[in-house]
User: What shape does this take?
Amino acid sequence: MKRLTLPLTDFKIPQISLGCMSLPEDSSKAAQIINAALDAGINLLDTADLYQKGLNEQNVGKAIKNRREEVLLSSKVGNQWRSDGSGWDWNPRKSYILEAVEKSLQRLQTDYLDFYLLHGGTIDDPWDETLEAFEILKQQGKIRAFGISSIRPNVIRNVLKKDPPALIMMQYSLLDRRPEESVFPLLEKSDTRVLVRGSLAKGLLLDKDPKDYLNHTARDVQKIREVIQASGHDPQAILLAFGLSQPAVASLSVGVSNLNQVQKLIQAYDSSQRISIELIQALRKEIPAFTYENHR
Assistant: This one.
């Protein structure tokens, strides 16, 4: 597994990370998946306090308790569950972040996070106090680096000016190429790197029934799927190679829900190393790219 040193940190992250949101709620099954990923060199685990109302963090914590030194652990904050459990509200306030991290650390059975990401955000958020909270946590040694999870160009530009994050998590795939317009070129010139989510486009280009996706119709999705299949390569390997071809991208966070998917992911990653950049460029020319309509 190839690794990249993040410019704003002193550690390396693997090109493939484990998105923990899809893990089963059963702790033993979740542990089997996590251990299989770690054994394969996929040692960046991405969770969030929002997932399964904290159970996801608990299961991750149980699984890595005896392997913590091998793991790069990332969690996210900002979505606060209502007391009645009916949903959550956005809360990027400093006081909430400093409170929420303690609960995440307790669930994860660790005294620090390698990455702590703001789980969303708008241009109107109180960014000065939000970023101050992350700086306090870094000084306290409770987090090693901070990031944001955002697809909004105006938010990303704003944060880069104020306090560049080590990582920005955003959606990117052959069906969602919006970051190519302005965000990726901007980040290539910075020390911030991208942790991609959604690189497999919900399986629509693999084995799921085609359906509308963003500005793509179900028919468009089917045509793109046929183009990928015609390449003669494993479609999942194509999607991984496509995501990793961007200079601003450090890692792809891929969710899995069973051991078979872990094995397929590992095989696809190995196969992706043999896919030429010429093929990726040809796909870019053949498949349409859209731009962000809002939050520009």
